[in-house]
Amino acid sequence: MSTLGSYTFVEETKADLPWAELVTLDLAKFHTPEGRKELASFLIKALREKGFFYVKNFNISQEAVNRQFAIGRRFYELPLEEKEKYVPKGLDDGKFNGYVPAGRRILNPETGLRDRVEVYNIPKFNGSFEHDHPEVIEDNLPEIEAFARSLHSEVLDPLHALLAIALELPEDYFTNIHKYNVKSEDHLRYMKYSKFTPEENESIGNMWGGGHTDLGSFTLLFRQPVAALQIRDPLTHEWRWVKPQDATLTVNACDMLSFLTGGYVQSTVHRVAAPPKDQQHVDRLGLLYFSRPHNDVVLQTVKDSPVLQREGFTQNQFEKSGNPVPTVEEFTFAKQKWQRTKNVARGDPNYRTATILPGFSEQVYA
């Protein structure tokens, strides 16, 4: 095991920001039928009213989390030429496992200032994917695998079970299409936002990444004290900052849950702003996990849910348009290809409203 050193988080901001009022789902209650029923009601309300929520008591130690941040930090300390050896072949066509360098987006067309976002994605450890990593990742791969698997079993499986209960479906309905041993495009991500100067931040409107939705089922985001994540309230459309909460995960709903529920659960709009002034001198390191159903699942509205039938959520965008309903694999790579488009200038309307597949177009989220 590599000597990674301890990981020290940045001190939280002292700025008085308009924080989102998010609820916390306590997975300690998951282990009784009564607790699951309570949590299911809690979850569906959180998903429909905010789209983002916190999770606590998920049976993964803070030490294990800190180790992952330390691994991510060590990876980003590598020279660029070493990291670039792990850029996936086919990046421009939507491939995403491996290293994605910064600078693919033009944030300020007048000055040519580009993004400073780097990504390293690690796919499932279930035999479906090749694993070719730099030494710092390779040396810690058993620990990374254990961590990724524990996120699946300790967080995602319970969330999928609770969603099924909330929709009056068999408890294993969603876990059966999110099994770890079946091929899907889940991945663990180390993500680095390198800092801009205050002048650079001002030149890009203090906005590092525009409003967007994630493409999978749930996204898990580990506590990051550098304030930058903002969410758009689904009911008021106001933007609010997401406050770091000790010993929690931040979770949001994504496109595929919206498709599977006919829009009953909406994919949550979020963006990344420049941090407040007392944190603009540091880089921002993120640790995330992206969950997606099996690649061969067709993204049609669940027909068996009495809740969706009663509430009238029986067709998603593809079904309403009369276009073919894609599989998870088809939608994943179509949207990833759009996301990875090179040299797009911020505000380009052709990009912001592009048709991902017939029946589904992106939107501008002001």
Automatic annotation (TrEMBL):
InterPro entries referenced in this protein's UniProt entry, alphabetically: DIOX_N, IPNS-like_FE2OG_OXY, IPNS-like_sf, Iron_ascorbate_oxido_reductase
Residues forming the Non-haem dioxygenase N-terminal domain are 25-122
Q: Where are the transmembrane segments?
A: none
Signal peptide extent: none
* Pfam families the UniProt entry points to: 2OG-FeII_Oxy, DIOX_N
Domain Isopenicillin N synthase-like Fe(2+) 2OG dioxygenase residue range list: 193-292
What's this protein's name? Clavaminate synthase-like protein
High-level lineage: Eukaryota, Fungi, Dikarya, Basidiomycota, Agaricomycotina
